[in-house]
Structures are given as C-alpha cells and as structure tokens.
Specification:
The protein is mainly beta. It has a single domain, classed as Porin, CATH 2.40.160.20. The protein is built from one helix and nine strands. The strands form two sheets. It has a five-stranded antiparallel beta sheet, with no helix packed on it.
Length: 120
C-alpha cells in the first residue's frame, strides 16, 4: 500500500454533516471508562464531495457527568473523551481512506467537536 504523501493536502472543509445512525452509552455519576458513541454520518465538503465518517471510542466524564447532563460542554481537557474516526470516500479525497486517526473530543448533548490527528 502506498504511503500517504508527505505534503498531504489540508483536510476538506465540511459544509454539511448528516448523522445516519448513532449508539449512545448510558451515563452515571460513577467514574469509569465506557464505550463512547458509535456514530456514522456523511460529511459534505465545500466542493460537494461526500465523505462517510464512522467513529468509535472511549469516554470517562467522571466528575463532569453532571455538567454534561445539565447541558454544558465537557472538553477533552476536562475529561477523557477519545475516538478513532474512519473515513471512506471517492477518488478526490482518497488519501483520507488510508489514514489511521485519533480524535480528542469536546462533548455536549447537542454536538461533538472532533480535533482529529493522523497517526504516522
């Protein structure tokens, strides 16, 4: 398999994201790592390309569970929220298909913000 280009293009800028399914874990006040959500969705880029995104991971909100349930955002700096995004797309962004990635996540009831890094 060819290695990713050294000067890899910048990740596409999303304009729309559609969630096609999600499985959420139950939360409790006990601090213990648990499976994070498993999400599948479609990201539409600024140039019209569609990228399928699947994520799985782990989350431990610990003492911040109450903040989360109250509607506040809990950040990756406050709690352990990590996922491994997987991309599937066509030729224009085919380099994404070869990446192994990890993400630090900021989590609220209404959204997840991913800060994604590719592993070398």
């Amino acid at each position: 398999m060819p290695s990713p280009p050294r000067n890899r293009p910048r990740a596409p800028r999303p304009t729309s994201i559609w969630s096609t399914c999600a499985r959420w874990t139950s939360l409790s006040e006990r601090s213990r790592p648990c499976p994070a959500d498993r999400r599948q969705g479609i990201v539409q880029t600024h140039d019209g390309a569609a990228i399928q995104l699947t994520t799985t991971g782990r989350a431990d909100l610990g003492e911040h569970t109450g903040r989360f349930l109250a509607g506040e955002e809990v950040g990756a700096d406050d709690a352990y929220i990590r996922t491994c995004p997987l991309f599937e797309t066509r030729a224009r962004y085919a380099w994404l298909n070869r990446l192994v990635t990890v993400a630090r996540c900021d989590l609220s009831i209404s959204r997840i913000r991913y800060r994604i890094s590719a592993l070398a």
